[in-house]
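Could you help me review a protein record that somebody else here produced? My question to you is simply how this chain folds and whether the tokens agree. Thanks in advance; the entry in question is below:
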Amino acid sequence: MAKSLNWRSFLRSTPLLILLGLGGVTTAITVGMPGLTLPTASGGSISDSPKEVIDQVWQIVYRDYLDSSGDYDEKSWRQLRSKLLKKSFAGNAESYEAIRGMLASLNDPYTRFLDPKEFKEMRIDTSGELMGVGIQLSLDKATKELVVVSPIEGTPASRAGVLSKDVIVSIDGNSTKGMSTEDAVKLIRGPEGSDVILGLRRGDQVLDVPLTRARIEINAVTYRLNKTKDQQKIGYIRLKQFNANAAKEMRQAAKSLEEQGAEGYVLDLRGNPGGLLEASIDIARQWLNEGIIVSTRTREGIRDVRRATGSAITDKPLVVLIDQGSASASEILSGSLQDNSRAELVGQKTFGKGLVQAVRGLSDGSGLTVTIAKYLTPKGTDIHKNGIEPDVASVMTEDQLKKLTIEKLGSSQDSQYIEAQTLLLTKMRS
């Protein structure tokens, strides 16, 4: 089978979007169909049958999948295809179960099949609007438990005090043991105004947290100009996620703060679960004039290096806030700024998700997210499962977190921000 010549040509020729989020609520979509190159196991046509989507999924994995678990074997994968295409399926429901079973053998929580309804429900379009309670979910590979990556700011989950790393043990009294992220999303989502109760394990405690579902509009960036006691002007920018509007909103925020006379900046990536690869690169270029931003590697070892382009909006001192909810695209941005000595990081070690997914639409309206590459920081660090360590460690107590409302972020009542501001003032004076 023909292989892609290089990473750049792969990106140019393939109709997909590159995703760096953690699944659950946030995703990206594509239109267009993958090219099918292999014959069917039976030698006949499988068009317009439940087997067609099975074969599409199989071929995408065969062609593009990057194995991060060590569980993928090409010979076994070929045998699995032959076995499935010889079976009879009564309808799509049976074929979808077969697909999920096929993908489960990869042991990769980020390579996931979405039926048409799930695919439609889980997409976030350019307006940044979604329906739900506002949590980002991930399936812990070791424990097989559903873990909250981060609550989305300003949502029912955030207001109710849901925290990063909370384990969802039940949904409306139903145990989540053995439950996939897709099944969890089905139970958590529902009509606007309806209620759902999440059972959350936090340390040794299990808490029942009632939530009312809502329509959530997400602005990627919020910002303001803070003044110290000495009347020094600090630009505070909070980036909540890397959606299609994030780079534009970041540019507007930085330019506005420059016009207001900001003398230094604190960029807040706490609780940011990631999003689109191109958004993270574009935003890094707004802060970096030179240097490598990130490199990506496919399973064939093809390496694509993305660099700064001399288009930084400002070179004023910068400090970045991170925590265990800062993942994926957040780690690309913070890692690039740290490795290039453009900024120092304050807070907690990041989540540690260093894999890149492509999102593919299938012929019947269903979809597939498939791991296609891993990314490395400018110094070649693979952060997957390891995360990025801050330059200055700063941890909030659970009590401090409970008292820290959205309105207090980036204020004198935000202890991590105060740490960042103190470091920034030192940099500004040097």
Notes: The CA atoms of residues 34 and 56 lie 7 Å apart. Confidence is low (pLDDT under 50) at residues 1-16, 23-46.
